[in-house]
Amino acid sequence: MGMALDEPEKEDKVVIINDIQVAIDPQLEHEVNELVIEYDRGRNAIVLSGNESECV
Predict the structure, then answer these.
(1) How far apart are CA 31 and CA 40, in angstroms?
(2) Model confidence over 21-40: pLDDT tens digits?
C-alpha cells in the first residue's frame, strides 16, 4: 500500500480529512479505516501510520 500525490481516479472514493482531499481505492477502503496521515519531522516526510506496517 502506498500514497501518491495524484488526481483521483474515476472509481476512487473521495473524502476530506483535516481539510485535505483524499482519494481512496474502493478495494482498499477497509484496509485504511484506522490509518492516520501525519508529518514525521525526523524523516521530513508525510506518512501513513496506524497499522502493522508503515507506508511513506
Answers:
(1) 21
(2) 888 899 988 888 777 888 88
- What are the E-state strand segments in 1-56? 13-17, 20-24, 36-40, 45-49
Dist CA 21 CA 44 (whole Å)? 21
Cβ–Cβ under 8 Å, residues 49 and 35: yes
- Give long-range contacts, CB 8 A cutoff, 24+ apart: 2-7: 2/55, 3/37, 3/46, 3/48, 3/55, 3/56
Q: Is 0.90 topped by the overall pTM? A: no
Beta carbons of 18 and 27 less than 8 angstroms apart: no
